[in-house]
Backbone:
């Protein structure tokens, strides 16, 4: 299944041993990048003019830098080619806020967050791209310098904490002197981390650096947390201390990052389809519970989930969001509400016992006139790879399920491509296409959201079942 390919991409974080202590490690995954980019449209900001210049060491493979801002969507505000490791951005009408410099082919992994205040007219930075954990060095911006100094100290303490945690849990006897020493040191380092954060937040209570640290909270396991349950414990309490309702969060990358990281963890679970989907629904319900605290976050989250699940093609989870949240939401744009209404009708059609909608196929033929004792109706397209996979299985399936009459309605718009495709397909199938694509009468009456979609119809012109693959309608073996 397509989502299983997604899982292979998602497991990268765990496989590479990334630190489990960060609740918001902003390294995402390839499939989420697609969904991330799918969310966004451009908006114009009004404010000050700022110059941002930088120099990267060893920038091989990187050729462009973009400045991205966040409101209801993500906006690419400026971009510059990367020449000999250097770049220069001149940005007009910029509001104070937290922005993101994307500098690589994967903007979800290759970025630097930059705070811009009313005092900033020119910001300079340098960074060595060879380092595993890349640390930008800022000049010309006191707030960014303070923030990087804080994260440097925080990283050192987290490394100590990780070592102490691992030393304690790898000790064969927790009562041994070495284990007890690690336990004592862990408690001390834990308090140092808390003190560091509290001191920084107190000093920067009224500025964006304080907001940034508060938003990028560190999740710290206790020594009682077994290593194998660290990630589980982290995500069980993921949302509890995040500053979801703070208005200043609206112009930051954090909401998008929270959603991608949290859902990415649950997408990565290696479970059978049924328990996996049940767990995903629980995680989606928790997302909506916390992100519905303000109209802004509710709208952003619903739009994110609808776009993401639609792009993934996961109809079961999309149906869960549509039926439990989207259909009653007043915050969605009219076009989105229309899409939700269409999908809700799509979920209903095809249930056993419903009469099928009749469709005019040609000037002399309608669908009702083709229905036999057992009919399989297939909606497909020659450009759909999953459709072509089903066609490859049809000969074998038909040999075991020869009592079916098969009708195939295509969404093709290119007549030449369509005719070339059906010339290679089984001759016993009845093929129809009006070349209107998604505006076809059949597509609209059957509320087709994706291809392939298959229906079994009985002799009384009533649905028996709906499915996506031939195996749902009979054995291949």
Residues:
């Amino acid at each position: 299944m397509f989502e299983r390919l997604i899982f292979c991409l998602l497991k990268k974080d765990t496989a590479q041993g990334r630190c489990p202590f960060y609740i918001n490690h902003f390294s995402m995954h390839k499939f989420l990048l697609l969904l991330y980019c799918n969310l966004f449209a451009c908006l114009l900001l009004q404010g000050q003019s700022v110059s941002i210049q930088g120099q990267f060491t060893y920038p091989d493979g990187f050729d462009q830098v973009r400045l991205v801002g966040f409101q209801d969507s993500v906006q690419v505000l400026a971009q510059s080619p990367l020449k000999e490791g250097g770049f220069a951005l001149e940005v007009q009408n910029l509001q104070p806020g937290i922005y993101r410099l994307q500098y690589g082919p994967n903007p979800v992994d290759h970025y630097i967050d930059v705070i811009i205040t009313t005092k900033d007219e020119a910001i300079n930075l340098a960074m060595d791209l060879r380092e595993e954990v890349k640390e930008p060095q800022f000049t010309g911006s006191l707030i960014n310098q303070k923030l990087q100094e804080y994260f440097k100290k925080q990283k050192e303490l987290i490394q100590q904490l990780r070592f102490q945690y691992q030393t304690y849990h790898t000790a064969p006897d927790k009562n041994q002197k070495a284990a007890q020493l690690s336990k004592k040191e862990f408690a001390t380092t834990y308090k140092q981390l808390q003190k560091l954060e509290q001191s920084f937040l107190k000093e920067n209570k009224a500025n964006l650096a304080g907001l940034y640290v508060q938003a990028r909270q560190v999740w710290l396991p206790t020594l009682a947390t077994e290593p194998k349950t660290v990630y589980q414990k982290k995500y069980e309490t993921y949302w509890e201390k995040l500053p979801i309702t703070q208005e200043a969060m609206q112009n930051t990358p954090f909401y998008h990052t929270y959603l991608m990281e949290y859902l990415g963890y649950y997408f990565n679970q290696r479970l059978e389809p049924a328990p996996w989907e049940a767990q995903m629904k629980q995680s989606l319900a928790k997302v909506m519970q916390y992100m519905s605290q303000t109209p802004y976050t509710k709208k952003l989250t619903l739009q994110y989930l609808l776009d993401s699940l639609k792009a993934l093609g996961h109809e079961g989870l999309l149906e869960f969001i549509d039926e439990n949240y989207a259909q009653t939401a007043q915050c969605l744009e009219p076009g989105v509400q229309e899409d939700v209404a269409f999908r809700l009708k799509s979920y209903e059609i095809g249930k056993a016992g419903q009469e099928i909608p009749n469709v005019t196929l040609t000037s002399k033929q309608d669908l009702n006139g083709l229905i036999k004792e057992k009919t399989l109706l297939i909606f497909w397209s020659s450009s759909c790879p999953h459709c072509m996979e089903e066609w490859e299985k049809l000969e074998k399936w038909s040999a075991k399920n020869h009592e079916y009459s098969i009708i195939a309605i295509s969404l093709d718009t290119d007549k030449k491509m369509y005719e070339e495709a059906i010339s290679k397909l089984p001759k016993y199938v009845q093929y129809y296409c009006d070349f209107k694509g998604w505006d076809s009468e059949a597509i609209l009456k059957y509320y087709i959201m994706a291809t392939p979609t298959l229906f079994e119809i009985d002799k009384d012109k009533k649905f028996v079942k709906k499915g996506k693959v031939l195996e749902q309608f009979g054995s291949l073996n």
